[in-house]
Amino acid sequence: MLVESVPFWTVDLGATNYIARDRTIFVESHWILKGTRYIFMGNNAFITVLGIGTCKLDLQGGHTIYLHDVYTPEVWWNIMYVLVLL
User: Fold this and answer.
1) 62 — phi, psi (to 5°)?
2) N- to C-terminal Cα distance for the chain?
3) What integer pLDDT is reported at residue 53 of this predicted model?
4) Which of 3, 13, 28, 53 could pair with 58 in a Cys bridge, judged by C-beta atoms 3.0 to 4.6 Å apart?
5) Per the confidence metrics, is the pTM higher than 0.85?
6) Where are the domains of the chain?
7) What is the pLDDT of residues 54-81, one digit of tens each?
């Protein structure tokens, strides 16, 4: 559905937050003091949040989705929770 194949997003049925690893896709963001906010992952691990912002996703057909309150922790993939697609 995305116009560009990069960055890839993983749709996760169990996710409760948006997570983006690539800060270049943010239209606005701000840093958070390291060690002040964490995300609990499905494997029972906690990861440190580095920042929060808004991402813009350009879809086929000229549609655009803005994801707000996207976290940027130290992860290897982008995660989108399913509710955004409904």
Assistant:
1) 80, 10
2) 14
3) 93
4) 3
5) no
6) 9-85
7) 998 888 888 888 889 888 877 767 777 6
